[in-house]
UniProtKB/TrEMBL annotation:
<feature type="binding site">
    <location>
        <position position="64"/>
    </location>
    <ligand>
        <name>Zn(2+) 1</name>
    </ligand>
</feature>
<dbReference type="InterPro" id="IPR017593">
    <property type="entry name" value="Allantoinase"/>
</dbReference>
<keyword id="KW-0862">Zinc</keyword>
<comment type="similarity">
    <text>Belongs to the metallo-dependent hydrolases superfamily. Allantoinase family.</text>
</comment>
<feature type="binding site">
    <location>
        <position position="62"/>
    </location>
    <ligand>
        <name>Zn(2+) 1</name>
    </ligand>
</feature>
<comment type="subunit">
    <text>Homotetramer.</text>
</comment>
<comment type="function">
    <text>Catalyzes the reversible cyclization of carbamoyl aspartate to dihydroorotate.</text>
</comment>
<feature type="binding site">
    <location>
        <position position="238"/>
    </location>
    <ligand>
        <name>Zn(2+) 2</name>
    </ligand>
</feature>
<dbReference type="GO" id="GO:0000256">
    <property type="term" value="P:allantoin catabolic process"/>
</dbReference>
<feature type="modified residue" description="N6-carboxylysine">
    <location>
        <position position="149"/>
    </location>
</feature>
<dbReference type="InterPro" id="IPR011059">
    <property type="entry name" value="Metal-dep_hydrolase_composite"/>
</dbReference>
<keyword id="KW-0378">Hydrolase</keyword>
<dbReference type="InterPro" id="IPR032466">
    <property type="entry name" value="Metal_Hydrolase"/>
</dbReference>
<dbReference type="GO" id="GO:0004038">
    <property type="term" value="F:allantoinase activity"/>
</dbReference>
<protein>
    <recommendedName>
        <fullName>Allantoinase</fullName>
        <ecNumber>3.5.2.5</ecNumber>
    </recommendedName>
</protein>
<dbReference type="GO" id="GO:0050897">
    <property type="term" value="F:cobalt ion binding"/>
</dbReference>
<dbReference type="InterPro" id="IPR002195">
    <property type="entry name" value="Dihydroorotase_CS"/>
</dbReference>
């Protein structure tokens, strides 16, 4: 006999907006249709979640899957699979590292098609703001980019050019008119270039010293000035220092529509880890001194950072290992998207005793609100998509190379121990990953386009 529901998840500790409650969750047609202490009807499928925690699936607003053009570095299939294994049910793919970059509608639609046929979980796509594509911005917005992304410093690939100040200013004016968000990689190109010319070194410290916190603060300040002039909404990606967080918060307090993210690697690793681990831990901005890392945690805990993203940026292992003796040549990017949620639960909840409701704000609610996906995504409530992660807090988990689902199995997370483990991931009511059986082979990801009204409402989020 057919069940009343497609799926019932029984007896989990469900992470709601403001509390964690022991509830059953009923799913029908991919949506949560009932949340109750005891669900009466039966389900076609029943999942026993007793003793486990049920969180909204992570929404990772910042990944690089590099397809088309560099799918041999990762691609939608591998990338979305590793995210599913980490409890992520929606991601936003960046417009660079793929060839061509996502600079126009043709490139966007090609990427959407590829994602639609390969992705394990739902996804949105960022569009590019680069020198020369000003006329493409409107088309990209109309075709549903989640926002635009620009670099204020070189990107590490020749196909995606950083913006000059005038392109940035004009682009911001346009993007403000389109009512979209501009995400910025903010490091000052002139400061980096001058320091590089001065240094001519090869070590981890040499590399880090060419990309100081000052470079981040200067670029952010310049962008904030232009946001004030143009009215453009901004989102600062991978902010690595509490001092920069403060600048952004001051602008927010002054009424600018601006948000920011940081990544688990800036919270879990410092420059000494980078020296110990080598090129596998190279990213931009670089890992910081221990004091900076601790201050970043303080900024996060005190509510000054809106969301956590992975900035998962994979590459062939040789692009790391071949340059162990010249940190400037190694690929800058962390293979880590699989571990964002576990890292935040381990370090935020288990270690620092922050409530899981708070973790969910950073990993799901705030990104959903900011980018116009809420309340369809980001929250466990009736009417929302049944996107969720089951997490056990009774499993100690030492990450090994065999655990990695990235195409290339290198990561600074190898050797880290987490006191939690994602045991299952559910996307719109379908189990897409279990610890026992791995990632489901069948792709079922949908391309998500932001709802403009919800996006406008999301601008009032409080971290
Ligand atoms: N090109 C690219 O993926 N760059 C990313 N990697 C990184 O560490 N920071 C970035 O912006
Ligand atoms: Zn970046
Ligand atoms: Zn990035």
């Amino acid at each position: 006999m057919a069940g009343k529901y497609d799926l019932v998840i029984k007896g989990g500790n469900v992470v709601l907006l403001d509390e964690v409650r022991n509830l059953d969750i009923a799913v029908k047609n991919g949506m949560i249709v009932e949340l109750a202490e005891q669900i009466s009807g039966d389900g076609e499928n029943v999942l026993d979640a007793s003793g486990q925690y049920v969180l909204p699936g992570m929404i990772d607003a910042h990944v690089h899957f590099n397809e088309p053009g560099r799918e041999d570095w990762e691609g939608f299939r591998h990338g979305s699979g590793l995210l599913a294994a980490g409890g992520c049910t929606t991601y936003f793919d960046m417009p660079l590292n793929n060839i061509p970059s996502t600079v126009d509608v043709a490139a966007l639609l090609d990427k959407a098609n590829r994602g639609g046929s390969e992705s394990r979980v739902d996804f949105a796509l960022w569009g590019a703001l680069v020198p020369g594509n000003e006329e493409e911005l409107e088309g990209l917005a109309n075709h549903g980019v989640i926002g635009f992304k620009a670099f204020l410093s070189p990107t590490g690939t020749p196909e995606f050019e950083a913006v000059d100040d005038l392109t940035l200013y004009r682009g911001m004016k346009r993007i403000a008119g389109l009512n979209r968000i501009l995400a910025l990689h903010s490091e000052s190109a002139p400061i980096i270039h001058c320091l590089e010319a001065e240094k001519k070194g090869t070590t981890v410290r040499d590399y880090c010293e060419t990309r100081p916190v000052l470079a981040e603060m200067e670029a952010v300040s310049r962008a904030l000035l232009m946001a004030r002039e143009t009215g453009c909404s901004l989102h600062f990606v991978h902010i690595s220092s509490a001092r920069t967080v403060r600048l952004i918060q001051e602008a927010k307090a002054a009424g600018l529509d601006v948000t920011l993210e940081t990544c688990p690697h800036y919270l879990l690793f410092n420059i000494e880890d980078f020296e110990r681990l080598g090129s596998v831990a190279k990213c931009a901005p670089p890992l910081r001194e221990e004091a900076e890392r601790l201050q970043l945690w303080e900024a996060l805990v005190s509510g000054q950072i809106d969301m956590i993203t992975s900035d998962h940026s994979p590459c062939p292992t040789s692009m790391k290992t071949a340059h162990e003796h010249d940190m400037f040549q190694a690929w800058g990017g962390i293979t880590g998207g699989q571990f964002s949620l576990e890292a935040m639960i381990d370090q935020g909840h288990v270690e620092r005793r922050l409530p899981l409701t708070q973790i969910a704000r950073w990993t799901a609610i705030h990104p959903a609100k900011r980018f116009g996906l809420y309340p369809r995504k980001g929250v466990l409530s009736v009417g929302s998509d049944a996107d969720l992660a089951l997490v056990s807090l009774n499993q100690d988990h030492l990450i090994t190379e065999q655990d990695l689902l990235s195409r290339y199995r290198h990561s600074p997370y190898i050797g880290r121990r987490f006191r939690c483990r994602v045991t299952a991931t559910i996307q719109r009511g379908t189990i897409v990953y279990t610890l026992r059986d791995g990632v489901m082979e069948q792709p079922r990801g949908q391309w998500l386009q932001p709802c403009e009204a919800a996006q406008a409402e999301g601008r009032t989020i409080k971290a």
